[in-house]
Amino acid sequence: MAEGGYELVIIGGGPAGLTAGIYASRSRLKCVLLEANPLVGGQAALTDIVENYPGFDEPINGFELTEKMRKQAERFGLEVRNEPVNRVDKVGEDFIVYTGKGEYPTESIIVATGSEPRHLGAPGEKELRGGGVTYCATCDGPLYKEMEVAVVGGGDSAVGEALYLTRFAGKVYIIHRRDRFRADGILSEQAIADDKIEIIWDTVVTSIHGEGEVEHLHLKNVKTMEESTLDVAGVFIYVGVKPNTEFLGGLLKLDDRGFILTDDRLEASVRGVFAAGDCRSKVLKQIATAVGEGATAAFVANEYIQERRHKRAETESLGYDQK
Predict the structure, then answer these.
(1) By the 8 A CB rule, do 113 and 268 touch?
(2) pTM
(3) 136 catalytic per annotation
(4) Domain for residue 266, yes or no?
(5) Catalytic residue at 231?
(6) Is 140 a catalytic residue?
(7) 34 in the same domain as 66
């Protein structure tokens, strides 16, 4: 198919997709990377400080890191297009990837679409989104200089972004439904020791209130059932993520949360489709694991494509119809 289409289409431009692009381009595959957002880099590009990516003895900004990945991939010839994928169809042994701008026939696909923040689901969240309800401290933190804000969650993202917010906010509350963080030890220790952070344990946000902008939160302690009110100018929500896999429309097998199921070679349930990064069902979702999976997916995809090339060459040498 490569003459009239692509050998590989990579869907998603985060660390997994960009690394897959580096490896695929170095293998001289005819490939293209499709990214829905103008900003290539995925959620990693919105992370202010990355401290645990190997090779950097000092923290690096997420945007800077993913920009280096993009430039490296493009240096090897990767074609990057800002087009959201609407659906993928299987046509015989091949595929067609549809975007709002066109169609991309391809022999194989790497899905690296990542995930996005889950919503809290509390009354007032939807109505006040953009008016103090936010899911990105890097994007909106500077708006809250010397104000009091809340962060909801207890994982790496929540605690890390709470620490980032102390650069701007006068005070940062971390509201967590458990009595200890799920974040790694160093982040947890930093947050507990920070004078600008106050942690509200065993508590959930039951509703968000304000006239056009966030003014206060209604809270409930899950152990004592005591209810309270907390005055804040903004609330940053980090209560998990959901995979960007809706566009697959039943093409692949997913787990009960919508993440793509793969084998240890990152092959999905349909031959010729591979998955890498945070859209995949796995234990750890980090930039380092996404990069490793992107490399593996591209390597295995290349093996698959070379196998197809070999079979076509054999068929042609014997004089058989390629179909």
Answers:
(1) no
(2) 0.82
(3) yes
(4) yes
(5) no
(6) yes
(7) yes
Q: Structural domain of residue 167, as residue ranges?
A: 133-237
Per-residue pLDDT of the chain (323 residues; tens, 9 = 90+): 656 799 999 999 999 999 999 999 999 999 999 999 998 999 898 887 888 899 999 989 999 999 999 999 999 999 999 999 999 999 999 999 999 999 999 999 999 999 988 999 999 999 999 899 999 888 889 999 999 999 999 999 899 999 999 999 999 999 999 999 998 899 999 999 999 999 999 999 999 999 999 999 999 999 999 999 999 999 999 998 899 999 999 999 999 999 999 999 999 999 999 999 999 999 888 999 999 999 999 999 999 999 999 988 887 777 655 44
CATH of the domain at 48: 3.50.50.60
Q: Give yes or no: residues 137 and 206 share one domain.
A: yes
Distance CA 251, CA 271 (A): 11
**Identified catalytic residue from 139, 179, 231, 255:** 139
From the candidates 48, 140, 156, 278, which is the catalytic residue? 140
- Single out the catalytic residue among 31, 89, 94, 136: 136
